[in-house]
Sequence to fold (354 residues):
Amino acid sequence: MPFTMASMVESQAKNPEFSRLYVAAVLALNVALSLSIVLMNKAVYTYFFFPNMTLTMIHFVFTTFGMLVCRFLGIFAVKSMPLSKMIPISVTFCGFVVLTNLSLENNTVGTYQIIRALTTPCVILLQTIYYSRSFSTKVKLTVIPIIVGIFLISCFDVKFNILGVTYASAAVIVTSLYQVWVNEKQGEFQCTAMQLLYYQAPLSAICVGIAILFYEPLLLKGGLFGNLWSAKALVLVSATGVVAFAINVSIFWIIGNTSPLTYNMVGHLKFCLTVTGGFLLFPDPLPALQLLGIITTFSGIICYTHFKMAEQNLEKEKQAIERRKAVAQDKLFKQEAEKADPRLISIEDKKDDQ
Fold:
């Protein structure tokens, strides 16, 4: 049983063909889990004042143990990968976490969200320049309403300062690089999302753990070992770890089987749903400008989805035509070979006589 399941996953890595319904289900699951962990993390910070980066490290520790359990159950087979090439992904993730926290600390929420939206065009730029990926003009243009929409949602709280913009800009570059590498490394090593995450999770936990030594007081009040945490706090933190494991697997799967750009679109969708959910579930105001921003961002996401699906359909049609041409050429080659070789003709004649 374990060998069969692992073999199945290996075959999927070599021939990653998934139905649209399957992809949509994973995207929906990622959105639901992400919204859930936002609420759970907020509860951890608000009610128990748990240290931020320590919680991130715990999430990766849970992910590491989750991957070990999955390996034991035979859900995936471990694939040997060079550790030297895995370290950069883990370091960029650590940089992404640290710089994002510094950006939030030194910027208003509005400034943070607006600059963060620039991750999408940055991903396009990195993939185009360094990995020779091509994007149609239509797909590129969908970025405009998304960024405009994010600006309209967040413009009520925009204040710029040199230090904050520096941290935010660095976070955009490192985040974009991390997402692109997660996609490219799965193709480079011909591995599945779980095989890559199996190596990246423990390395990222170590990297974040090192960062904690500089940014959070471990032994003082407010640090991991400076407080006597209640049972409720420990249960909730553990629950966020389990959800984080599921999110990390889904993120790697989405980036590996779709693209970093698609994952960015999902991120914008989550942001809009979070703002909308705050209005529907809590007494958060929703000014007309923010509503217009949500509608504009949604329109950009819908256009992106429509154009990408149309391009995928066109690509599938081209591949089908190429396959039919190859089959026809193969048949023609065999017919010409039979006509050119008299031995083949005599063999066919004998078969007909019999």
About this structure: DSSP finds 14 helices and no strands in the chain.
